[in-house]
């Protein structure tokens, strides 16, 4: 999903480089980084906290993709594909989080 997002944002106008492009790439990278950092934690509670942050970044990415679509930076087709991928990741993270609480 990160590679897909980087490819999409590379098509954004240059004026967005330090605005929505930067925020979008930070959000997508934050998802996997929070999961990775959470796995290093010593308790399920800490891991669950990092998974919550990853979910927050996924929702942020989803919102940024909707904005980019409204600005015609992303096609409706590309938006649907990336949103579907984001929702899948959100579900996977939520499933992992639930398994920690069992």
Query: Tell me about the biggest sheet?
Result: none
What's the multimeric state? single chain
Could you name the CATH class? Mainly Alpha
> What's the helix count?
4
What's the architecture in CATH terms? Up-down Bundle
Determine Rg (CA atoms, Å): 15 Å
Q: What is the name of the CATH topology?
A: de novo design (two linked rop proteins)
Estimate the mean pLDDT confidence.
94
The total beta strand count reads: 0
The percent range for helix content is over 70%
Tell me what the structure shows.
With 102 residues, the chain is an all-alpha fold. 79% of the residues lie in helices and 0% in strands. The longest helix has 27 residues, at 44-70.
Please specify the SSE layout and strand pairing:
Blueprint (H helix, E strand, L loop, with lengths): L1 H8 L10 H20 L4 H27 L5 H26 L1
Helix pairs in contact: 1-2, 2-3, 3-4
What's a concise summary of this model?
The chain contains four helices and no strands.
Key features?
single chain, mainly alpha, de novo design (two linked rop proteins), 0% strand, 79% helix, 102 residues
